[in-house]
Amino acid sequence: MRVLVDGDRGYIGAVLVPYFQAAGHDVVGLDVGWYDGCDFGPPVSGYEQRTGDIRDVRPQDLEGFDAVVHLAAISNDPLGHLNPGSTYDVNAHGAVHMARTAKAAGVPRFLFSSSCSLYGAGGDGKVAEDGAFHPVTPYGESKVMAERGISPLADDTFSPSYLRNATAYGSSPRLRADIVVNNLTGTAFTRGEVRLQSDGSPWRPLVHVEDISRAFLAVLEAPRESVHDQAFNVGRDEDVVQIRTIAEQVSEITGAPVSFAPGAGPDTRDYQVDFAKIGEVLPTFEPRWTVPAGIHEIWEHANERGLIAADFEGERFVRLRRIEALAASGRLDLSTLRLHGEGAVTS
Ligand SMILES: NC(=O)c1ccc[n+]([C@@H]2O[C@H](COP(=O)([O-])OP(=O)(O)OC[C@H]3O[C@@H](n4cnc5c(N)ncnc54)[C@H](O)[C@@H]3O)[C@@H](O)[C@H]2O)c1
Asked: In a mutational test of the pocket of ligand 1, which residue from 5, 9, 12 has the highest number of ligand atoms less than 8 Å from its CB?
């Protein structure tokens, strides 16, 4: 299939694109390039990379594709808080614009990268795909708005699917330090301690970035009727764990002791998710990774690639720091989250 992947130059995209290519698909990327140069090892190359903002995409940009994989977003809570209005603009209105444009261009499939954070404060039980939405942040709200905006577009010619990913972990050529397993492991490597930012009690569903890619591939290749206007929680039941358990695993594997950051308190983002549906509907989706294996992977890559604290805690790997640095240097307008001088999509 010929697939347009937007957000291809981010953390998940840099793993998903080679994974799709290895499965025989022809990939074209589209990304505004906020994290260009923020590399962890050799950058991904060998495919057409277009530069542009999803909010400016026109039908002629999407003609001839069999599917759009929509990853581009303000990708976490701290970034979302920076400017909630722009977060809705990119993550909700931008996502709906991409879906509408894909449909107008005759693209039959649309895979939306949603998030388990739309369930928010989920209460005591495990929440399945038909569970209520209680997002507690603008980022979570933006994913709810996007799904609700895209779903009415579904018809005989257009099949959107919503992949509600758990919190990702694992190595990527565009590593992120601001997600929990990566953060704890990288800090163990660079600082010699497993430093918790909360009291460690919240539950978090986790999934390896390569298993996310596996889920997208399974949806892409599934018969249309099994994924048409369907949501899937993407993760593994075994990997719904308390943050303190992750800290203990990192400590055990790396030998670094656990410590608490000053002011570490409770975290309201506490939810447990039911991952049964994806395995039942998509039997080709077989997650391969475990959290301990992911900790080993990051540790080994940190060693091979010489990870240092200044990089791990700075703009190279922390999305918020990078956006703040782009704004401070005058390259990005924080009120609109637009790069200066950026125009229509270019090859
Ligand atoms: N990483 C996770 O733990 C996780 C979990 C659940 C859902 N998700 C979702 O998966 C997607 C990818 O996440 P990620 O971790 O790779 O994020 P990321 O921040 O590493 O990458 C996002 C990419 O999108 C690009 N982008 C942002 N706004 C754009 C715009 N307006 N036009 C064009 N490109 C734009 C950025 O330049 C970047 O390359 C996001 O939608 C995110 O919300 C991620």
From this structure: 12
- 64-112 confidence digits (pLDDT tens): 999 999 999 998 887 878 788 889 999 999 999 999 999 999 999 999 9
Residues of the chain with pLDDT under 70: 122-124, 264-270, 342-347
Q: Are strands 126-127 and 194-198 parallel, antiparallel or unpaired?
A: unpaired
Output the domain CATH number for residue 124: 3.40.50.720
The CA-CA-CA angle for residues 267, 273, 274, to 5°, reads 170
In ligand 1, which atom is closest to the CA atom of 53?
32
> What's the structural domain count of the chain?
1
Pocket mutation for ligand 1, best pick of 8, 11, 176 (most atoms within 8 Å of C-beta): 11
Going by CA atoms, what residue is nearest to atom 21 of ligand 1?
10
Find the domain containing 56 and state its range.
Answer: 2-174+207-238+268-288+330-339
> What CA–CA distances, in Å, run from 43 to 13, 21, 37, 39, 191?
11, 15, 8, 6, 26
Query: Looking at ligand 1, which residue's alpha carbon is closest to its atom 32?
Result: 53
Residue nearest to atom 42 of ligand 1 (CA): 75
CA separation for the pair 237, 275 (Å, rounded): 6
Alpha-carbon dihedral angle through residues 92, 211, 233, 223, given to the nearest 10 degrees: 90
| Alpha carbon of 10 to ligand 1 centroid (Å) | 6
CA distances for 183 relative to 76, 169, 268, 307, angstroms: 14, 9, 19, 12
Q: Do residues 250 and 185 lie in contact, with contact meaning Cβ atoms separated by under 8 Å?
A: yes
272-306, pLDDT tens digit by residue?
899 999 999 999 999 999 999 999 999 999 999 99
The reply to whether ligand 1 has any atom less than 6 angstroms from the CB of 183 is no
In this structure, is residue 122 part of a structural domain? yes
Task: Tell me whether residue 43 is in a domain.
Answer: yes
